[in-house]
Design a protein that fits this description.
Layout: E1 13-23, H1 26-37, H2 42-56, E2 66-73, E3 78-84, H3 102-106, H4 117-128, H5 133-146, E4 148-149, H6 152-165, H7 169-175, E5 187-188, H8 191-203, H9 212-222, H10 241-246, E6 250-252, E7 255-259, E8 262-266, H11 273-285, H12 292-309, H13 318-321, H14 324-331, E9 373-379, E10 384-390, E11 440-444, E12 447-453, H15 459-472, H16 478-483, E13 487-488, E14 495-497, H17 499-511, E15 516-518, E16 526-532, E17 535-540, E18 549-555
Parallel strand pairs: 14-15
Antiparallel strand pairs: 1-9, 1-17, 1-18, 2-3, 2-10, 3-6, 4-5, 7-8, 8-11, 9-10, 11-12, 12-16, 13-14, 16-17
Helix pairs in contact: 1-2, 1-5, 2-5, 5-8, 11-12, 11-14, 11-15
């Protein structure tokens, strides 16, 4: 029987059998579905989709970025995670960013971390996949060679970055042909990236981690190709080839909390996604009632603890942050009225009273780029992947590696700029900046029921948390849970909220002293849910960031 014809427009929901995929992009989703139909597993498909996103979503992801992958293995019923977060060069110190304006730090060689994405793909394929590294890159090579149709989102993101893109010869050549963004409806090709992927497939990850490609990345970081006549102050970076040679993607134990009969798995530090989503769920579970007020307050408190304790440092008190005793101590602070931010962190020391008042000093929530991308995949065997990948800000640091067709990341601006004595997220040699990425897999009785994640900087955490509450507390199905209007409270004086959220909940929340300020949109989630009897529902955004693309191997409709 012939496979059904592929849709040529994005469809944000699909239900069926044999495997399912949701990404922000039609080409990436089609690539993953093609891998599944040819017998590949969820990891194979996730890597293939991630590589395609490096072509079609180059301002959010790419082989010179990083990310976190959560994988449920159906055979063992075990959840694994891969930490592919970028690292700081060994020459970086706690004071490297002090005195540098944030935006100046972003568009510089100084912000580029040692890439982790290629190492993530390699490790995931070797440990859990069935395809070779070269095979997994083939769909991306085809898309980069043949091109993709420029949509409004790609045009808008290019236009928003045009002022800095023109200040680098390699970036202007690729993304500002004829001095302007490629028009909507045109076909955009990236033959240099196609060749980069071909060489990676032929030579393997070592070509980046110590080889010629790595040397080219280092040269670009240390001597950015600034356009003659540009007045931009572009600081050189500190990366050396030895930093690339030393890089490793890491297998880490996932975070886990139990929430109303569900086991929620996420990423451990240096991501704060698993710990902060998990702590907020624990706080909510300790309350007699869960509504939007309680959602915002639990998030406020969990962010206070995230900022104080979570980073790429020894001794993060993860077990206590996710303990029921600590959650109850924090939950007792939630009343009828909104707390005043910044609230102080709690003390996760294992000794918990009935209602301890925090006495510490609140740390600010650092700036994080709003971009990143997230995808979910399930295969015919019941394996599941939730995968966040990123180059940080929209367009990374704005610098394309000459001749390679890839933008560098600006991940190191996720560090606290300082001075901030004792901050767990200060930069340091070889350190991984704290992340908010929160790819999440939910199990019930040892089997997956849901996978979800989103882009959005530190709003990733609140987006994932809100979707979980929408689905399991507020009576929504998965499609409704993703489409519902969002708000984000991250221990700040104001709560950012989409207009639809303010329209629905504004009067109630403002009466409780919440200060709501409008923001156009929050996040761009993808998710899937197991409906029983091997049926899977894949869901992407209907409208945010141009809408997403969901597909299944065999449709039930």
């Amino acid at each position: 029987m012939a496979a059904p014809a592929e849709p040529q427009q994005k469809v944000p929901e699909a239900v069926g059998y044999g495997g399912a995929v949701a990404t922000v992009d039609l080409d990436a989703t089609k690539a993953a579905i093609s891998v599944l139909r040819r017998g590949g597993n969820a990891v194979d498909a996730a890597v293939a989709a991630g590589a395609v996103l490096g072509v079609t979503e180059p301002y959010s992801a790419g082989p010179t970025g990083g990310g976190f992958l959560v994988y449920y293995d159906a055979a063992s019923r075990k959840v694994h995670t891969v930490d592919g977060r970028e690292t700081a060069p060994r020459a970086m110190t706690a004071s490297t960013f002090e005195g540098i304006p944030f935006e100046e730090g972003v568009t510089s060689g100084l912000s580029a971390g040692v890439p982790g994405t290629v190492a993530t793909w390699d490790l995931a394929l070797r440990r859990f996949g069935t395809l070779s590294f070269r095979q997994a890159l083939q769909p991306a090579i085809e898309v980069a060679s043949k091109g993709f149709v420029v949509d409004q989102t790609f045009y808008d993101q290019t236009a928003a970055n045009a002022a800095r893109f023109k200040d680098f010869t390699s970036t202007a050549k690729l993304y500002l042909p004829n001095g302007a963004p490629p028009p909507v409806g045109s076909v955009f090709r990236n033959p240099e990236l196609a060749e980069t992927y071909r060489e990676l497939g032929r030579r393997g990850p070592g070509w980046l981690y110590g080889g010629k490609f790595g040397a080219e990345i280092v040269a670009t970081v240390k001597r950015p190709p600034v356009t003659p006549g540009s007045t931009r102050n572009v600081r050189p970076g500190l990366m050396e080839l030895s930093d690339l040679t030393a890089y490793r993607a890491l297998l880490r134990e996932p975070t886990k909390v139990s929430y109303k009969g569900l086991d929620v798995y996420g990423m451990a530090p240096p991501s704060s996604g698993g710990s902060t989503v998990g702590e907020a769920l624990n706080i909510l579970q300790a309350l007699p009632h869960v509504g939007v007020h309680e959602y915002l307050e639990a998030s406020r408190l969990a962010f206070a603890d995230r900022n104080a304790y979570v980073g790429d440092i020894p001794g993060v008190p993860l077990k206590e942050l996710l303990s029921d005793g600590f959650a109850k101590e924090r939950a007792c602070l939630i009343g009828d009225q909104a707390l005043t931010s910044p609230v102080a962190p709690g003390v996760p020391d294992g000794s918990y009273g009935p209602c301890a008042q925090p006495t510490g000093t609140a740390a600010p929530t650092a700036k994080e780029g709003p971009e990143t991308t997230h995808l979910v995949v399930a295969d015919r065997w019941g394996n599941v992947v939730a995968y966040n990948l990123t180059i940080e800000s929209t367009g990374g640091n704005g610098i394309v590696v000459p001749g390679r067709g890839v933008l560098l990341n600006n991940e190191l601006t996720d560090f606290t700029f300082g001075p901030a004595p004792g901050d767990p997220n200060l930069p340091g040699p070889g350190k991984r900046p704290r992340s908010s990425m929160a790819p999440t897999v939910v199990l019930k009785g040892g089997k997956p029921v849901l996978a979800v994640g989103s882009p959005g900087g530190s709003t990733i955490i609140t987006t994932v948390l809100q979707i979980l509450l929408n689905r399991y507390d507020f009576g929504m199905n998965l499609k409704e849970a993703l489409a519902a209007p969002r708000a984000t409270q991250r221990n700040t004086a104001d709560t950012q909220a989409e207009p639809g959220f303010i329209g629905t909940y504004g009067p109630e929340l403002e009466a409780r002293k919440h200060r709501l300020v409008p923001i156009a949109e929050i996040g761009a989630a993808t998710a899937l849910e197991f409906l029983g009897r091997d049926k899977v529902q894949a869901v992407a955004e209907p409208t945010r960031r141009g809408g997403g693309s969901a597909m299944v191997v065999r449709s039930s409709r």
